[in-house]
Design a protein that fits this description.
By secondary structure, the protein is α+β, with helices and mostly antiparallel strands. The protein is built from 9 helices and 18 strands. The model has no long low-confidence stretch (mean pLDDT 91). The chain binds 6-O-phosphono-alpha-D-fructofuranose. 6-O-phosphono-alpha-D-fructofuranose binds next to loops.
Length: 340
């Protein structure tokens, strides 16, 4: 009997499905998570789907940046007073357009926009959310083909003016994640019950799940910080660096938070951006960098602090406020805190 007729006699479920084909997509993961909440309206799923679409578009533009002459400065500055890269603007507009069309989005806030953007005030139906993001973190590394990323944070939209509605502590996040445009395009996300990781398969245009319930290694003798700023670090941080170097630690630092934190999530270690003379309150932004990264690290069993305080407990005062950051493997974070 020919092989084909063999198959025709088998019921579908008996067919040899190539077990090597990973068919667990981000979309199926999102819908499966939604089904765990019978009362859910699907708004959050729609938002996550918009983020998936946006980051696929951004990934394609990042990877063809030099070919399509979208490298370099856009000739403008963002609200942070930082020179915008052309891709910063493109990434920001992509996210605004994809999210703008989704019913559950009440407010959007971006590193690139001084004020939050109101998408829809009237409560149509279902849950509504605030979506905050850094559209292209580390974009200054693009011209040298370094890793860059998108970071997002999702909060419930309680009533009130947008500017106030988004000022919630990181502990209120319903979801957080990032996409690293590195040697592959990796999406890491948490909905509050553990951390899942997906890799974009460009041949089929889908993020495929490669890990769930991800746990950060308990220890790793690696620290990640910009030691060029060391002379202006407070003494406690300098004492930590002395201790680490006397105890055989290595250092890894790329200048893109998403790339540095992803390495620490996967391999363990500690990422720190202490106060410096130039950034006495720290450089990284609380609402759309430290909070989402802090939620992911905590959900993976690590620790995320601003000095002695838990990042997710910080009561925000302004959208673009900055914070110091020490996050990573709990034991490694505690080695830093012990010296402060
Ligand atoms: P420095 C990128 O500009 C960024 O916001 C983060 O991605 C990164 O961790 C940090 O700044 C790097 O700052 O001062 O070391 O160049």
């Amino acid at each position: 009997m020919s092989n084909a007729s063999n198959h025709s006699s088998l019921a579908y479920h008996e067919l040899e499905i190539n077990s090597r084909d990973n068919l667990s997509t981000l979309q199926s993961h999102i819908l499966a998570e939604q089904q765990k909440h019978p009362g859910s309206t699907g708004s959050l799923s729609w938002i996550l789907s918009a983020i998936s679409l946006s980051t696929k578009v951004i990934a394609s533009k990042v990877r063809r940046a030099r070919l399509q002459d979208v490298l370099g400065s856009a000739g403008s500055e963002n609200v942070q007073g930082e020179t915008q890269q052309k891709l910063d603007v493109i990434a920001n507009e992509t996210l605004l357009r994809c999210l703008g069309g989704r019913g559950g989005v009440a407010v959007v806030a971006s590193e690139e926009n001084e004020q939050p953007v109101v998408i829809q005030r009237a409560s149509g139906h279902g849950e509504r959310y605030c979506v905050l993001f850094d559209p292209l973190d580390g974009s200054s590394n693009i011209d040298t083909c370094g890793g860059v990323g998108t970071i997002f944070s999702i909060l419930r939209y309680e009533d009130g003016e947008p500017e106030q509605a988004i000022l919630q502590p990181g502990s209120k996040q319903v979801a957080a994640g990032y996409v690293l445009y590195g040697s592959s395009t990796v999406l890491v996300m948490t909905l509050g019950q553990g951390v899942s990781m997906f890799v974009l398969d460009p041949t089929i245009g889908a993020f495929l799940r490669v890990a769930e319930s991800l746990r950060i290694p308990d220890t790793q003798k690696v620290y990640s910080c910009n030691e060029g700023n060391r002379p202006t670090f407070e003494p406690g941080y300098q004492k930590y660096l002395d201790w680490a170097q006397q105890n055989g630690y290595s250092t890894r630092y790329s200048g893109t938070m998403v790339a540095d934190v992803h390495r620490i999530l996967v391999k363990g270690g500690v990422f720190l951006y202490p106060p410096t003379k130039k950034a006495p309150d720290g450089k990284l932004r609380l609402m759309y960098e430290a909070n989402p990264m802090g939620m992911i690290i905590e959900q993976a069993g690590g620790k995320a602090c601003a000095g002695k305080q838990r990042i997710l407990d910080i009561a925000p005062k302004t959208l673009h406020q900055r914070t110091t950051v020490v996050l990573g493997s709990t034991a490694e974070v505690e080695h830093v805190l012990r010296h402060l």
